[in-house]
Write a structure and sequence with these properties.
By secondary structure, the protein is an alpha/beta fold. It has one domain: Response regulator (Rossmann fold, 3-Layer(aba) Sandwich). Helices cover 46% and strands 20% of the residues. The protein contains 5 helices and 5 strands; from the N terminus they run βαβαβαβαβα. Strands 2-1-3-4-5 form a 5-stranded parallel beta sheet, sandwiched between helices. The longest helix has 14 residues. The N and C termini lie close together (11 Å). The model has no long low-confidence stretch (mean pLDDT 90). Bound molecules: magnesium ion (MG). The site of magnesium ion has 5 residues, from loops.
């Protein structure tokens, strides 16, 4: 599956992409929201893993932008966006869902949980 990992922390980039590639997913890494939007436009990503704290545009703003682009092109298949965040406050989750995210995972998370979410997302 084509997965876009939006994460600015190099260690998290390595850990998450290593794990996902081991599960035979095709992973592309974006280090900022701006980069994520560019990659999103040129690629067909089924799943987007979205860190919330990013330099420049944050994860919420980036998600809104992606949903806006999807809405402008009705033929586009809606991507499944999973928030990856260090913040576990409830209003954070609320904000994520309101911005158009589909799932929410607090870091550090167990990889099997991520695997479970991906496997249960049917296309
Ligand atoms: Mg970050």
């Amino acid at each position: 599956m084509k997965i876009l990992l939006v994460e600015d922390n190099p260690l998290n980039q390595k850990i998450v992409s290593f794990y996902l590639r081991k599960e035979h997913h095709e992973v592309t890494i974006a280090s900022s929201g701006e980069e994520a939007v560019k990659l999103f436009v040129s690629g067909e990503y089924k799943i987007i893993l979205m860190d919330l704290m990013l330099p420049g545009m944050n994860g919420i703003e980036t998600t809104r932008k992606i949903r806006k682009i999807e809405a402008e092109f009705p033929g586009t298949e809606r991507s499944f966006i999973i928030a990856l965040t260090a913040n576990t406050l409830d209003n954070d989750r609320e904000q994520c869902m309101q911005s158009g995210m589909d799932e929410y995972m607090a870091k550090p998370f167990e990889m099997y949980k991520l695997k479970h979410i991906i496997e249960n997302y049917s296309f």
